[in-house]
Amino acid sequence: MAKWGEGDPRWIVEERADATNVNNWHWTExxxxxxxxxxxxxxxxxxxxxxxxxxxxxxxxxxVEGEASINNRKGxxxxxxxxxxxxxxxxxSKSGIKYKGNIEVPNLSDENxxxxxxxxxxxxxxxxxxxxxxxxxxxxxxxxxxxxxxYVDFLKxxxxxxxILPTANGVTKHPAGxxxxxxxxxxxxxxxxxxxxxxxxxxxxxxxxxxFSLKDTFLTSPEDLYRVFxxxxxxxxxxxxxxxxxxxxGGKFRLLDGNVNGEFQELVPEQKIVMKWRFNSWPCEHYxxxxxxxxxxxxxxxxxxxxxxxxxxxxxxTRDGWQRYYCHAIKQTFGYGAxxx
Length: 341
Hints:
Helices cover 25% and strands 34% of the residues. It is an alpha+beta fold. The model is unreliable at 1-5, 8-26 and 162-204 (pLDDT under 50). One of its GO terms (cellular component) is cytosol. Residues 29-161 form the Activator of Hsp90 ATPase AHSA1-like N-terminal domain.
């Protein structure tokens, strides 16, 4: 028997207030199945791709079958997940013809690299051939693969909080910590709670920019939709995070725990909002100019989003962010769901 004070330090509990899993030596396990099922649906629902041929969108995640868990042994996290996914997509050609199809992912697993993932896209039986199928098999598959990679990153960061406990000297080593910055930079917007990434230094180099526009339709009045963007409580509701909104000309806004910020340049009630808008990861003092135009269409409101001076390298992330984490999130939060224009 070891003398007092000479035992294996892995088992010493006297310096730990809770005396629980000292130095993370014991095996612990957390079931991530239910959380993963909801997260996969959240990431896939509403994904859109568009080309000169038309537009496609994932409208339903019909099957999420599998399991996921995380194990902590000797301070190391081990991830297990295996999923069989099925989803439905809808497409509309430029001429207005509607199409329906299916998506299947049979092998989302910790044993497979994301690049090796099988993502099968097809048209429903008796649907005529369309170029939209090619669009989904190319750009659609890319977006699906990115969303599934985001699930794995979230699993390794968001869900693992508290699994590795502080050791006797107060130091916690989290092997997934390096992914936090990646999530903030690579995902369009962080819906969950996170701290803002520090802005990069101002390099003084002129960067190439681009512009794009989007349209969406909401089952509400221009007055109500206009208020969603300016009411701080409503902004916090659809972003699911802290926000500061000064609803006046020259007023500042800070969303998603500081990852998005800007200033209102022009406010025309129920008609138009013009703002300077930026990701915190963009070069210092570089802002895009975003104009929101609200048009009354009777029982619904058409929203036109025009973004100018967006860094070329950030176009896809910015476009996807406005589609998913503004438009889709507003519809989902306030029940303003309507067809896409």
